[in-house]
Amino acid sequence: MIRLAGVGASPGLAMGVAHFLGGRVEVQERRIFADEVDQELRRFEDALARSDAQLRRIQQQIAEQVGDGQEYRILEAHRMMLADVHLVEETGKIIRGDQVSAEWALRRALDQIQVVFASIEDPYFRERRSDIDMIGERILRNLLGMTPPGYEGVPKGAVVFAHDLSPADITQLGRAGVSGFFTEGGGRTSHAALVARALGLPMVAGVRDFTKHIRTGMTVIVDGGRGEVILEPDFGIQERFADRAARDLVQAERLAKAREAPAATLDNVRVQLAANVELLEEIPVSVELGADSVGLFRTEFLYLERSTLPTEEEQYQHAVAALRAMEGRSVIFRTLDLGGDKMPTSVRIPTGNNPALGLRSIRYSLWRRDLFRSQLRAFYRAAAVGPLRIMFPLISGVAEMRVVREVCADVCQELARDGLEHDAKVPLGAMIETPSAAMITDLLCDECEFLSIGTNDLIQYALAADRQDENVGYLYHPLHPAILRFIRAVVKAADQCGKPIAMCGDMAGDPRFSWVLLGLGLRSLSMAPRQIPMVKSIIRSTRLGEAEKLVEEIITLRTEDEIEEVVNRTMKQRFPLEFTEES
Ligand code: PEP
Ligand code: MG
């Protein structure tokens, strides 16, 4: 039995047969038109650059950990292969000569190289084939947006492990009946983790060196709450696992009983609990779990799981379907939040040296106005069907919000000219995700009808700690005194301006933080649907004064560890059933 530590990315327990996902990428022949050749060549160059950047990063990590070891030199060799004439020039030649897609051309170039290697007699050089394979598959994955194939072979109930998984992998594997995941890369707020949480599938990320220990077919337990993976658990552990799973079920049944009851404190302070969703399939679950509304509909997934762009009509139908499924409750659609950690295959996003600070999110939408306008047209049209709101991600200042509003006004005029039914009075909101937006909440209030704090990004930008980078995960902390001050200031400014303020980052759905958020003045929280019953249960057993007292105490403390200690102790004392030693 071996225990591997990682980061709890999605809570819950799963036990099953381990299945490694990382096989050969299947590529179909795809012919292109002559005027698409340049675009395919650019896609290929882009994939090479991304592969090189990834290898450079791994190289740096290994160099820091083990010095200039063997693996380090292999990665250097892999990076050199990215410039290999047989690979690069041959792929370009095939794209141009045969007018085929970059991935098909690359697959053919790789196959040609493999034939040459297969005929080499020296076993050492023949073995280098696997290096070509690894590098080739990496470029192909980057070309295809890291969507590994081969879901069909994964048995139902299996626990899938991989170096990395995309949101699309989680979605499709979840649908195929997989019971849990663990990965070497990623973190708590990667989009793969968000989707796993949304679907209620346990996941542990950032598990180092697992390939040394685990093979497909082993029995494995994934503990998404603790961030632990147990390989070949002994009988006693398996029994404990079964006990905990049974207890979780009892608790879920208890919480489900309060489904119809409002989320109000014992002294009758009403809190709005909304759902964060990515997929239409999650809406019935959200209603079932007691969501008052959808507080954040992430629309990227309409773009991420495919190689062509969605049309305006498709987006309109999608929004209408969401509104209908919510049966009169409001839905806040967030405009495209592409870039950074969300890279689509259907469009090219210039990444720059620092994607998190680059052309992502609303910046990308304002750069690709055609995409932005098509999405806005769809939303304004759908608003004629039900209570829809539009929210804009990563707003950094008033000027940006004004440009956004101008585009919205222009889109409405265009719809009127086209004679299409729409509602031009849709409320518009800004996400508070950058320190600049947080500092000028009062000014943004004049430009918006509502605001919502996106803590996942706000924490990353306020603490300058990449939300995806497990090396700086120790810095990324929702209870950092700076984050508490930001939240307090934002809520106060919005309240003074009389503008609705919500929180839709992950912090909102963590029941350990419910008192902190109530005490800081928040009355509207949007979270992964599965978190709603537990957060509601905490709120319904709380007097507002208790939460305010906790905040008064922690706001004077100086480090996130001190604050966490007080918060955990207080919550465990007050809610022993909800926060057990094991939770
Ligand atoms: C956030 O940043 O808190 C947020 C809700 O947006 P996302 O996680 O999609 O970036
Ligand atoms: Mg965000």
Report a brief summary of the structure:
The protein is an alpha/beta fold and 583 residues long. The protein is 47% helix and 13% strand.
Overall description:
Helices cover 47% and strands 13% of the residues. An eight-stranded mixed beta sheet has the order 1-8-7-3-4-5-6-2. An eight-stranded parallel beta sheet has the order 15-14-13-12-11-10-9-16. The model is unreliable at 65-71 (pLDDT under 50). It has three domains: 1-23 and 152-231, Phosphohistidine domain (Glucose Oxidase, domain 1, 3-Layer(bba) Sandwich), CATH 3.50.30; 26-143, Enzyme I, Chain A, domain 2 (Orthogonal Bundle), CATH 1.10.274.10; 263-574, TIM Barrel, CATH 3.20.20. It has helices at residues 37-66, 70-81, 85-98, 102-118, 123-127, 129-143, 167-175, 191-198, 235-256, 282-288, 301-304, 312-325, 361-367, 369-382, 398-417, 435-439, 441-445, 455-462, 481-497, 514-519, 532-540, 544-554, 560-574; strands at residues 2-5, 7-10, 13-20, 159-162, 180-183, 203-205, 219-223, 228-231, 272-277, 293-298, 331-334, 388-392, 428-432, 450-453, 501-503, 524-527. It is α/β, with parallel strands linked by helices and 583 residues long. The two termini are 22 Å apart. It is built from 23 helices and 16 strands. Helix 3 packs across helix 4 and helix 7 packs parallel to helix 8 (191-198). Phosphoenolpyruvate binds next to strand 10 and helix 18.
The first-level CATH class name of the largest domain: Alpha Beta
- Look at the helices and sheets and give the structural class: alpha/beta
At CATH level 2, the architecture of the largest domain is Alpha-Beta Barrel
- Examine the coordinates and then state which fold CATH places here, giving the name of the CATH topology of the largest domain: TIM Barrel
Largest sheet: 8 strands, mixed
